[in-house]
Amino acid sequence: MDKNAAIGVFDSGVGGLTVAREIMRQLPEEKIIYFGDTARLPYGSKSKETVIRFSEQIIRFLRTKDVKAIVIACNTASSFALDEVRKVEDIPIIGVINAGARAAVAASKNGKIGVIGTEGTINSGTYAKAIMDMKPGVEVFGKACPLFVPLVEEGMFHDTVTDEISSRYLQELKSKYIDSLVLGCTHYPLIRSTIARTMGSDVTLVNPAYETAVQLRTLLRSMEMNCDEGRNLPVEEKYQFFVSDMADKFRAFATAILPDEVKQTIKINIEEY
Asked: 204: which of 53, 124, 141, 265 lies 20 to 30 Å off by Cα?
């Protein structure tokens, strides 16, 4: 395996860009190939079998790019597909669940932890299981917040509608007196300020995107697979973006939240893989 090969990152759409952004910040030498499944989002309302099939197709596409590792930057796909694809793939594949769970356990003082995410992520119970495996006896309260995803994808990061939806969704968790809250969907860090304002200063927000980048850095170093330092590649060569639909809309969104302008996004037919 070429240690200077790219890292594959995929998500159901644009939310995984928050994970890509953290990898860019914490592993600035690494190349990234990102795929957003914009034709088939959202994943959160789809069955486990469907999400596994979609994930397998995307991984087959990323393997054609000779990636050295894959990050499933989607909480729903991490919940449903991670264990399945690891059984058949021979390169490191990590998700966003364990990193977020570990950080939530470390942050909680009173043992009451909240998790927000898509319906698929919450109903799977994956976060709750991971958290309780790490620290038996804690209480985990999950809340599906499906409207957060379309609000983020419409760019409504600071909007009264987002404030109102946040208040309605999170009131239930506030009543449980949680002291840490996992942002269990990669879209949610983009409305972190709204969620923080709703929950109040006594609640620590856990961003699995950040924690996943830390985990990836540790993994690559342990395998001596981190790329050579000092490489000065053009941004266009270093970071490549692929989608299954709406390439122009994706490119505009990515440019708005990533450190550098995204000049090209390539649309592919993911069903061919």
From this structure: 124
